[in-house]
Amino acid sequence: MTPENVTTNEEPKRVSDKIADALVGQIKSGALNAGDAMPTERELCEQFSTSRPTVREALSQLQLRGYVTTGGGKRPRVTAPSIENVLLSAADHIREILGNAESAAHLEQMRQFIEAGAVRVAAEHSSNIQVAKMQTALEANLAAIGTEDFPVTDIAFHRSIVAVVGNPIILKLHDMFVSTMLAQRPNVSDRRPHDELVYEEHRAIYEAVLSGDVVPATSLIDSHLERSYRSRLAAPKSLNASSLPVGET
């Protein structure tokens, strides 16, 4: 793409799209190779006759598409696209919106779909080795009750179920998003009763998988995740009746 192909009369988003596409073309053609530092922002501005904000938007698109990595205060570098790179880039953006209650609920819903499907597969098709890994994770969960290690073993148990599917994309999503969501959960005031409840729900899920009971296993993990999510929702603020205007209740 020559500078003449990119005019500043177009909307900035359209310009950044074309610049990103042009740079992808250079990477695919070998003009830019994996590991190379990207041209500086000034050089890209000159090459495409555009502004720094537009160049930065194009570079952000390249990062999301897995063609560029950034970090450490260094210039962006060319990288070969991979599932992991694309998901890691998307994770950075998703983590930024986890503080939004509705967005967090959507992520929880995604997790519930993934794990309900995974436990169904596990109940129907898990091998002896996979069941043994679930049992090991469950035993570690039991041993960690009442300790700071319990959340880690909680994640590990759920991961052992998702791993049965054998889908690297699903497992990567679980590793990135579920771990982040669990890490951001508030501490419980009385850890042991909470941990014991969670463990017992895990044990029931494991036993249903071990018995090959698809419907109970799916129902149990659905109710487990639903209860877990709702227990973390902040209680609605109450109004002090004495502060209400006369005649209102």
Written overview of the protein:
The chain is mainly α. The chain has 2 domains: 3-81, Orthogonal Bundle (Arc Repressor Mutant, subunit A); 88-231, Up-down Bundle (Four Helix Bundle (Hemerythrin (Met), subunit A)), CATH 1.20.120. The protein is 65% helix and 4% strand. The protein is built from 10 helices and 2 strands. The protein has helices spanning 12-29, 41-48, 52-64, 83-96, 101-125, 128-143, 150-162, 168-183, 191-211, 214-232; strands spanning 68-71, 74-78. It has a two-stranded antiparallel sheet. Strand 1 (68-71) and strand 2 form a beta hairpin. Helix 6 runs antiparallel to helix 7 and helix 7 (150-162) runs antiparallel to helix 8. The longest helix has 25 residues, at 101-125. It is elongated, with a radius of gyration of 24 Å. The protein starts with 11 loop residues before the first helix and ends in a 17-residue tail after the last helix. The mean pLDDT is 82.
Explain the layout of strands and helices.
Blueprint: H1 12-29, H2 41-48, H3 52-64, E1 68-71, E2 74-78, H4 83-96, H5 101-125, H6 128-143, H7 150-162, H8 168-183, H9 191-211, H10 214-232
Helix pairs in contact: 1-3, 2-3, 4-8, 5-8, 5-9, 5-10, 6-7, 6-9, 7-8, 9-10
